[in-house]
Amino acid sequence: MVELLLLVGVLVAMFVGYNIGGSTTGPAFGPAVGAGAVSKSTAAALMTTFFFVGAWTIGRRVVDTLGSDLVTAPGVFTLETSIGVLFFIGLALFVGNVFGVPASTSMTAVGAIAGLGVANDALDWEVMGGIVIWWVVAPVIGFWVSLIIGRYFYARLDGLLAMDESDGAVLDIDWSEGVVPSVSIHEDASRREVVGVAAVIAIGCLMAFSSGTSNIANAIAPLVGAGALEMNPGILIGGLAVGIGSFTIARRTLETMGSDITELPLTAAIVVATISAALVVFLSFIGIPASFVVIATMSIVGLGWGRATRPITVSDAVRGETGETPPVSVHALAADGDGETAPPIGEEDPADIPTPGELFDPATTARVVVMQNVVPLISTLGAFVTFRYAPFF
């Protein structure tokens, strides 16, 4: 009976890992895919590799923390309750992936474990409170930093980088020679474009590594905490499941984060990825499960809003003399990429600046924000009701 339950637990953990791959690949490599820097298959391969490295090196510490610190009472994590927690994590993430929305795996997993803790009066509210505070603060920081960059620095940054995108792929990748591909620079790609592509890919790899350090715990921490699964086999199983999810269901979340919310030019992709990666690494460093999805989404919105407000001075905005920005092409986001000096704030021609609705699709953004709250709520309420009232727990 125990062996059968363990098999069920491993299968459910793999289901969670599968959905983690679908949820986290979009935030990590969505900007790179949206900018045409890498293909979806290449993004999946990079995600799988660097996720595993992060999980194997640092992730085991987070597994110990999530499996013991958040729920304090001994004996709460049993094999049966671990399966129940993993089931609600996987179910909630699957709902988000079906809608093409990369929901936060950390919020979903912590919510399910918190539901278990509250149902058994074993939740450490001090630890939970610290996590929630950073979940609120980090996206706000990402939004405002991106907005400031978009309003005051993006035009000069884009002019400095001058990364005019060429037709077709920047890198030619040939898989015909075996497992290790042959990579060469496309003949139409400029040197600065290659540097930009390398930067945004490197940042995506960093985010994948950081995802491995925190999100591997979401798949295996309940089983490891219950003593039903050893750490190393658990990391191998979780990493394999994440890879499967990255190559399959993540294609929808890559489209959402890379093109449906906004058509990101290369400079914008680098800005969003840099801010998101920096915040995620910081949160992982202080032991907070990081929400890649929320931070990346708010960074995209903040950057777009900052770019759209360049024609308006602060004094005009205070007096209400903002006027209306006429509709223009979305490609105006990269309009300063010709290397020319950007005009001062308030003196830029509104016709050269896109509106917020053209920098990010409001309907898609609203759908993402709603589902990012609904998915963790599903796991939290589902776990609480089950562990409080189900007679078999």
Automatic annotation (TrEMBL):
Subcellular location: Membrane
Bilayer topology annotation: Multi-pass membrane protein
GO-annotated cellular components: membrane
Keywords: Membrane, Phosphate transport, Transmembrane, Transmembrane helix, Transport
Keyword Nucleotide-binding: no
Coiled coil regions, renumbered to chain: none
First-listed, main subcellular location of the protein, grouped into a coarse class: membrane
Transmembrane annotation, as ranges: 44-63, 75-99, 132-154, 194-211, 231-250, 262-282, 288-306
Taxonomic lineage from the root: Archaea, Methanobacteriati, Methanobacteriota, Stenosarchaea group, Halobacteria
Protein task: Potential transporter for phosphate.
Name by which UniProt lists this protein: Phosphate transporter
InterPro entries xrefs: Phos_transporter
Family note: Belongs to the inorganic phosphate transporter (PiT) (TC 2.A.20) family.
GO biological-process terms attached to the record: phosphate ion transport
